[in-house]
User: Fold Calcineurin-like phosphoesterase domain-containing protein from Sphaerobolus stellatus.
Amino acid sequence: HEHQVPFRYQDGPFIAAPTRPLVWGDINIIHTTDTHGWLSGHLKDTAPEPNYSGDIGMLSSFVSHLKAEAEERNVDLLMVDSGDLHDGNGLTDGFPVGGIDGHEALKLFRRLPYDVMAIGNHELYKYEVAYDMYKNFAPKLHGRYLTSNVNITVEESGQLINVPIGDRFSKFQTRLGRNITAFGVLFDFQLNSINTTIQSPADMVQESWFKDAIAEEPDLFLLVGHMAIQPGSRWPVVFEAIRAVHPLTPIAIFGGHTHIRDCVQLDSRSMSLESGQFMETLGWMSLKFESDQVAFTRRYLDANMVTYAYHTGKHGEDFHTKEGKDITTGIQTLSNAFNLSYQFGIAPQDYFKQRVPTSSSSSVINLFASQVLPTTLKLSSTRGDIPAMFVANSGVLRYDVFKGSFTRNDQYIVSPFQNTFEYVQNISRSVAAQVVDELNRSGLPSLEKLYSENTSIDQADPFEVYSRWLQGQWERWNSEPSSSTENLTLGYVTTDACPGAGDDVPHQPVPHYPLPPFIGSDLPNTDYMDLVFVSFIRDSVLIVINEINAGNVPNVTDADVKPYTQLAVDNVFGLYASMVWS
Ligand SMILES: Nc1ccn([C@@H]2O[C@H](COP(=O)(O)O)[C@@H](O)[C@H]2O)c(=O)n1
Assistant:
């Protein structure tokens, strides 16, 4: 299997060009969020992947040309990011033994001219990642890596101290001298590692440092953070706290976490924007000050060379800056160092996460549950000859698998998580038969439950929100018969709560089928079996087994759970590809 597949970048004919120039204001802001390590952009040919084929070197060139244009127009251009830099791509997660997730990739990422970056929950799952952000990343942002409500406990001079990972807030001036007060807020995430803490946004706004920071009126409050912008999020808490002091000051909010394109206006002097996921989307917001009014616009740009060339009017060598080319070379060098082009096998077809029903032979979920898990886990476990049923959360699979070369990079893309596999033995056939259905009824909190319990939308599985968003696009498309005759390329079709069209390029939506939160392999034809599951869902699985047993047998507890194999989720697809697709 010593095949090497080169990373490549495409700007080919499959990409539809924008037709509307950007609307510039007095302050203009470019936004990224939930990039999850996709520094190289999307590399596959299956539509709509080429829509997102720009790498961050090209993005660097793009922003540099826009900055020059901003100077010519005598306006300000800022760039912000809402967090989740880790988990989702080999460039962050494919680090060698002894390395730290994201450490190398973020050296490239921070070469982009961000004015403010905020922390995401994926910076907090592991202490060593959070510590790396504290020690190595935040200092390089010079006070602009904002973690307003996130602390870390570190040892310094023999003492344990609890400090913000970055800075709580930043006050700075734009190139044209406008005063900005910025915060970086994370939703009340609960799965953070030990020795990191997250204060709820509601408590944060009561802090004296926050009240002091907002006392002086800036020209713009810039709220960047890892929270959805939907009304069920925590943004209104922060917004209202500022509005109580400054009823008229413009507020620009940049959210994330649910991976969707979205825009709302909490009042007429504010706009909230969320800009997608995985380096697919660049958000654009403009604010124009007109006598005592503020006019906002927003746009969702597909991140590719055709978009960049259209909006800068620059092509080929005129477009690519030296810095941009250096960053692209750096991505290639990192990819080589991490051996990300190593080919495990050749996928015989595309396998989709939500584009086909779960029962389809083209479903990656079906492939995972019915083929990948049974084949690889049984092979690698000492209990391989004991009948077993395999259960996983669908959220553990992050992306499609595309026909053709399946590389180490693709393995991290389909699932970056190092979750292990565990089992409980002697589960009866009748209990095992109900586990997946019962989990889907009550396992991870559904949005309805969360809303009714008045918790935040951000604590739901973001995958559920993203999935509903795609579902809405597909249903609307199908309910408008005329739309299906239009000759559009595949892509996102956003409807949000802000005026005018948001998508820079009109598309037709990718077909979408609902996906249950949990999935299982076929039930073996035997009275008792091992129930094998992803460690991430251990608590839910135990609760559900005990609920189904309803006290008829002793409860299963953590003591009954044992490791099933040395394999983790992030390496089962590679093993499968080398066994079946080579
Ligand atoms: N170790 C993990 C971590 C997360 N997941 C899945 O991702 C969901 C969280 O979504 P983010 O966008 O914040 O990543 C979570 O609910 C799980 O579905 C996982 O499987 N394993």
Observations:
- The pocket of L45E5XJ5 is lined by residues 121-122, 393, 395-396, 417, 419, 461-463, 536 (CB under 6 Å).
- DSSP finds 17 helices and 22 strands in the chain.
